[in-house]
Design a protein that fits this description.
The structure holds two protein chains of two kinds. Chain A is α/β, with parallel strands linked by helices. Chain A has one domain: Glutaconate Coenzyme A-transferase (3-Layer(aba) Sandwich), CATH 3.40.1080.10. Chain A is built from five helices and 13 strands. Chain A has a ten-stranded mixed β-sheet, sandwiched between helices. A three-stranded mixed β-sheet of chain A has the order 7-6-9, with no helix packed on it. The radius of gyration of chain B is 18 Å and the shape is globular. Helix content of chain B is 17%, strand content 26%. Chain B is an alpha/beta fold. Chain B contains five helices and 13 strands. Chain B has one domain: Glutaconate Coenzyme A-transferase (3-Layer(aba) Sandwich). The chains are: A alpha/beta, B alpha/beta. The interface between A and B is large, with 52 and 56 residues.
Chain lengths: 218, 232
């Protein structure tokens, strides 16, 4: 079975470590915050200028001056800090954020990522995504392995305009956990009940699969 | 009246000298921390052919989106736009030009512009459409593109409190691009919720020192929320 959105987030959450500063993109990455292990302390960075993002506010806490990068009203946890946009991207570009999780349309064997623009459709912009992929050492891309029509999103070469070049090394899809090194995809884990053949068949770029590929457990 | 007193009493005075074709930098992220009163004044004055530098372009009937109604904006320099139908329409029929700029690069362009640095190298955008046509240079085995900084004819800033000398503090995430914008205007106009007397704000807490501020006005703010999300 392909992973649900929640399982995808749960799998990504296993990459968290105590004391990590983490930036979560919009969509499935946001769900990762729901699966931080209880004994672990993690601080969420929101690129509009908040380190230590908390849950959505109650009616009483609601404050127009307190939002996240998705423009949603949020709160700040105890020990949070708030700063300006240049400072925020100094953290990001300077490599100070421990883990970045974001979605994508395509990735390829060279670690390129396309996530912001589909030619012919209205382009709204890259927001902070290009800075995040250029600055972070440790990035996890979450996405479905193939499009609804069955086209692979793990390619030999991205077809869409890039968000960043050579910056992606880890991808969690609904079918597999894949690493990118030396110009190839390396199959590391498979979703429960999904065969290696199916994963390799749905991967357009070259993929190396070991004899035994562990199954994710939930 | 002190030579350092930056307070003006009307938006007519605050935006005196703004002309068609100028470059205007505006603080704010989404609708959070936007200079509402200055935007309303630009609209009222009917200034046209503006190049506006701001992370976003408001929504259809609020924020910078208001300047789209009478087609006052010629070009937007932003990281994320299109939360408004008018924007999309004017973009598609060629009445509006957009220069999409990565958010961190945009903040740094303003910061550098205000700090007297004409350009800087960044890895952001290398190998993407943003890097096309820009100078590439390698440092320590990594490739960077040259990005030019931005200075505006006017910078429009929203603060929380300021003293009469123009020392500004911001409230929560309404800070965002505002301190960068404040440094990068040839004329910087700050509107705040409350003007106080010099000495009432702790010097070490000042986020924008008054040296950057030319005109200060106490405004009234709607503070509209774009995405109202609540924990039940």
């Amino acid at each position: 079975m392909a992973l649900s959105r929640e399982q995808l987030a749960m799998r990504v959450a296993r990459e968290l470590q105590d004391g990590y500063y983490v930036n979560l993109g919009i969509g499935i990455p946001t769900l990762v915050a729901n699966y931080v292990p209880e004994e672990m302390e993690v601080m969420l960075q929101s690129e509009n200028g908040l380190l230590g993002m908390g849950p959505f506010p109650t009616e009483e806490q609601l404050d127009a001056d307190m939002i996240n990068a998705g423009k949603q009203t949020v709160t700040a946890i105890t020990g949070a800090s708030i700063f300006n946009s240049a400072e925020s991207f100094a953290m990001i570009r300077g490599g100070h954020v421990d883990l970045t999780v974001l979605g994508a349309f395509e990735v390829d064997v060279e670690g390129n990522i396309a996530s912001w623009m589909i030619p012919g459709k209205l382009v709204k912009g890259m927001g902070g995504a290009m800075d995040l992929v250029a600055g972070a050492e440790n990035i996890i891309v979450t996405m479905t392995h193939a499009s609804k029509s069955g086209a692979s999103k793990l390619l030999a070469r991205c077809t869409l305009p890039l968000t960043g070049a050579g910056c992606i090394h880890k991808v969690v899809t609904d079918l597999a956990y894949v690493e990118i090194n030396d110009g190839r995809f390396w199959l590391k884990e498979r979703a429960p009940g999904v065969s290696v053949d199916e994963i390799v068949g749905k991967t357009a770029g070259e993929m190396i699969a070991p004899d035994v590929v562990p199954e994710m457990e939930f | 009246m002190s030579g350092f007193d930056k307070v003006v009493n009307t938006y007519d005075e605050a935006l005196d000298g703004i002309r068609d074709g100028m470059t205007v930098i505006a603080g704010g992220f989404g609708l959070c921390g936007i200079p509402e009163g200055c935007i309303a004044q630009v609209r009222k004055m009917g200034i046209r052919e503006l190049t506006v530098v701001s992370n976003n372009c408001g929504v259809d009937d609020f924020g910078l989106g208001l300047l789209l109604e009478d087609k006052q904006i010629k070009k937007m320099i932003s990281s994320y736009v299109g939360e408004n139908a008018l924007f999309e329409e004017q973009l598609l029929n060629g009445e509006l030009e957009v220069e999409l700029t990565p958010q961190g690069t945009l903040a740094e362009k303003m910061r550098a512009g205000g700090a007297g640095i004409p350009a800087f190298y960044t890895a952001t955008g290398y190998g993407t459409p943003v890097g096309e046509g820009k100078e590439v240079r390698e440092f320590n085995g990594r490739k960077y593109i040259l990005e030019e900084s931005i200075v505006g004819d006017f910078a429009l800033v929203k603060g929380w409190k300021a003293d009469r000398y123009g020392n500004v503090i911001y409230r929560h995430t309404a800070q965002n691009f505002n301190p960068m914008a404040a440094t990068a205007g040839r004329i910087t106009v700050v509107e705040v919720e409350q003007v106080v007397e010099p000495g009432e704000l702790e010097p070490a807490h000042i986020q924008t020192p008054g040296i950057y501020v030319d005109r200060l006005i106490q405004g009234r703010f709607e503070k509209r929320i774009e995405q109202r999300t609540i924990t039940e």
